[in-house]
Design brief:
The protein is an alpha+beta fold. The protein has 5 helices and 14 strands.
Length: 286
């Protein structure tokens, strides 16, 4: 059986219990929007010589709060919490396959960032795992100031209007639908008189495209119970993450060291060439 199919099948069987144990519920969800997140990793040459696979994201919306999360990572975390032995078996098998193929494919996908909106009240809580450490920070919610244009188009059967904003260092375009009068959207974009179904920055380094809306059989909107997470600040989180993505030490070398596996004869960490890119928000010290 294909490894991914096996992984998804196992996770789906345990996700309900895992979710209940790992997430502190806040309120029932009204609906969930599925998005594809596309990232251009090489933002200097503008040519995607090193493509980053699109991530499947979900925006789960309640009456007063929302959570934006990577779907595969959510399933992976649920499995790790509910059946840690099986999770580590799969993780080790995945690592061995990466060594064999020399292609790094993280179990659960590339995208690791969760955003919990209005949890606690008036704040975003952002959680991520990178450089082999779990990190979390809180910040005050900042609502973009939008300019609504005349352009319209249809997305998922909903009539949408175009809006623009300068937010967190980038110029953003967003298509929102007044037919769903909820001022939410992907990532930290919000504040329009309707749900955002598509958004992208001016250079299309980041593109969020909705692929469906789910209204039945939803879990609660809630927030992680942050055990073993390093609490940090927004600026330090982004700065540390930027240092991580521009580091020349390969992740494979770090993972191998964690497992006690030699990767070369002299034990020197393998060096790699990093592709230059930045995050959705660029207004931080780096």
């Amino acid at each position: 059986m294909n490894r991914l199919i096996l992984f998804v099948a196992i996770v789906f069987s345990s996700v309900v219990k895992g979710y209940a144990q790992r997430i502190e519920p806040k309120e029932p969800a009204m609906f969930e929007v599925l998005f594809t997140k596309h990232v251009v990793r090489d933002t200097v040459s503008e040519v995607e010589k090193h493509p980053w696979p699109d991530a499947q994201m979900a925006l789960r919306v309640g009456k007063t709060s929302a959570m934006f999360y990577p779907v595969l990572k959510f399933f992976r975390d649920s499995l790790a919490h509910y059946n840690s032995d099986l999770y580590w078996q799969l993780d080790r098998a995945n690592f061995e396959e990466e060594r064999r193929t020399k292609v790094w494919k993280p179990l659960g996908g590339w995208e690791n960032e969760y955003i919990f909106k209005n949890m606690p009240e008036g704040k975003w809580t952002v959680a991520n795992y990178f450089d082999m450490e779990r990190r979390v920070y809180e910040e005050e919610i900042e609502t973009p100031v939008w300019e609504i244009a005349d352009s319209v188009k249809t997305i998922l059967g909903y009539e949408c209007q175009l809006a623009f904003t300068d937010f967190r260092g980038r110029r953003w375009s967003a298509w929102f639908t007044p037919e769903i009068p909820v001022a939410e959207g992907p990532w930290k974009l919000s504040g329009l008189p309707g749900l955002i179904l598509e958004a992208y920055d001016a250079k299309r380094h980041y593109v969020f495209t909705s692929t469906g809306i789910v209204k039945d059989n939803l879990g609660d909107v809630g927030i992680y119970i942050f055990r073993d997470y390093f609490k940090t600040t927004r600026d330090k989180y982004l700065n540390d993450r930027y240092k991580y993505i521009t580091s020349t030490t390969s992740m494979g070398s770090k993972i191998a060291a964690a497992y006690g596996v030699k990767t070369n004869t002299d034990n020197a960490p393998k060096k790699v060439k990093r592709t230059p890119y930045d995050f959705e928000e660029t207004n931080y010290p780096h």
